[in-house]
Amino acid sequence: MRGYRSALLLVLVFWSAASCSPVAKGEAVDMGSTEDEGTEVIAGDSTADAAEDITADTEDITTDAGDCTADTEDITTDTGDITTDAEDITADAGDIIVDIVEDGSALTCRDGDPIEGQPSLALEPGYSGTLPGLTDIDFLPGDDRIIFVTAQHEGKVLIIENGQLRDTPFLDISDKISGGPEQGLLGLAFHPKFPTDRRFFVHYTDLDGSIHISAFAVPDSLPLTADTMSEQTLLVITKPQANHNGGGLRFGPDGFLYISTGDGGGGGDAHGEIGNAQNRQVLLGKILRIDVNGASADKPYAIPTSNPYLSDPLALPEIFHWGLRNPWRFSFDRMTGDMWISDVGQDSWEEMDFAGSGQTGLNFGWRCKEGFSPYVNDAHCAQEKLVDPVFVKQTDGPEGFCSIVVGYMYRGCRMPGYHGTVFYGDWCSEQLRAFDWSGSSFSNDRQITAVTLSHLSSWAEDQQGELWLVTTDGAIFKLVPAE
Ligand SMILES: [Ca+2]
């Protein structure tokens, strides 16, 4: 608890200065590397009177706001949820302020001072027991104490608090999900204004096999239990096949909800004349963007006015990017707003896609191309402007990739030497990898040696920008400097 209080205090102290923004055991989430069902790749409160006591002179505190800067909009501390002893906080605050003033230069991250350079890395378990297959991970905005993970085939959001699994799940929708290898509960995201807005969102495949995006409410009286009866369905996207459901669900720095969907399944996106991913009149094979803070006449959400196809009669207005096969995971660079998308390949190429902040309506190529290689040559493809990936990894190549899983551009507090480095992995490969990004080109793609893992499924960034990951084997890890 002391660590947490320290973190909270740091948040309070740096409130104005900073921007420290961050498939089933034995079963596979098939993220859809190949079409065959038999081919099971995966992947397929603090009573914050204390705050008033914390009168830090921020001018005395010289920090690098760029290294660890809190997005003040993201920091919504819930004084109701955080039950701590205000007297303890006051005492801690005194200690921390003294430390900072005495040190004069170093920002103290939650787990210690920042480390220079690029230290060797290790994976620190976030839970020591056995969990069911996990597909996604998230934290309460402004509160890192508690880890929320999605158990794919159990249809539950589980809570890890202080390293312990809570007996009661946060959410149980086991009676609403379908159970195929790529199906189930696939993604979650808390409203960025939580707990002011007490909603969280899930991405699952429903009993009809459709992609289902819903909001659930968290009652004031039960801060760690969602109200199962509160479900508000935002989107239901019917699908021709069971695989390729996408599964990504993240709020962008713009406050809008982004959703990734697969091409509908099967192999080669053999849907209709041009395939689903190239067809802007369907929501499959896309990155969607909606405004959950608004509503329109016929939808429980609004379309952001800057969406690229708002007024295009040939396209659906939710579409933000398109031409994707099964973009299982995507993420945002909290500093720049750039977007990283990993698109699981058909038979040959796993690809890393990039969309700069402000770019909209990018066609990432599938099924016209798989990676850099032509896949289908038709009249439609010939007229489209296709955006190539940043790089590709050979499917079943020497690095063992089969279903690529992008992580995050590291913007964390503890290891500023890694700022500018994107971490990623793959469901089949045991490698954890990273590359450097200049803003327009990548370099130094390398394996993080001394770290191996099995069946990586998703990543998350905590408040301090430290990276966490989960696996369909049921493990939770934090990426940390090696001892
Ligand atoms: Ca592509």
- What's the CATH topology name? Neuraminidase
Q: Which band does the percent of strand residues land in? A: 25-35%
* DSSP strand tally: 27
**Which CATH class applies here?**
Mainly Beta
SS summary, helix count: 4
Mean pLDDT: 83
Tell me what the CATH architecture is: 6 Propeller
- The helix/strand class is mainly beta
The kinds of small molecule bound in this structure are: calcium ion
Q: From the alpha-carbon coordinates, what is the Rg to the nearest angstrom?
A: 22 Å
Structure description:
Helices cover 8% and strands 31% of the residues. With 483 residues, the protein is mainly beta. It has a single domain (2-481), classed as TolB, C-terminal domain (Neuraminidase, 6 Propeller), CATH 2.120.10.30. The strands form seven sheets. Strands 2, 3, 4, 5 and 6 form a five-stranded antiparallel sheet that branches. Strands 1-27-26-25 form a four-stranded antiparallel sheet, with no helix packed on it. A four-stranded antiparallel sheet has the order 7-8-9-10, with no helix packed on it. Helix 1 packs across helix 3 (86-103). The longest helix has 18 residues, at 86-103. The chain is globular, with a radius of gyration of 22 Å. The chain starts with a helix and ends with a strand. The model is unreliable at 1-30 and 34-106 (pLDDT under 50). The structure holds calcium ion. Residues 343, 351, 364-366, 369, 389 line the site of calcium ion (CA).
